[in-house]
Amino acid sequence: MTGSTSAPSRRSDHELSSCSERPTRSWTRPALVLSLFFFFATSARSEPRIKELSAREDRGAVTVTFRLADAFSASAIKNLQNGLPAGITYHIEFFLKRSNWFDAALSRSRIEVICSFNSVTREYLLNYRRDRRLVRSAVITDLAQLERALTVIEEKELFATGGARLSRLRVRVRADIGSGFFLSLLPTRISTSWRETRVRRAAVTVGSAVPGRR
Question: What is the reported pLDDT for 105?
Answer without folding.
Answer: 95
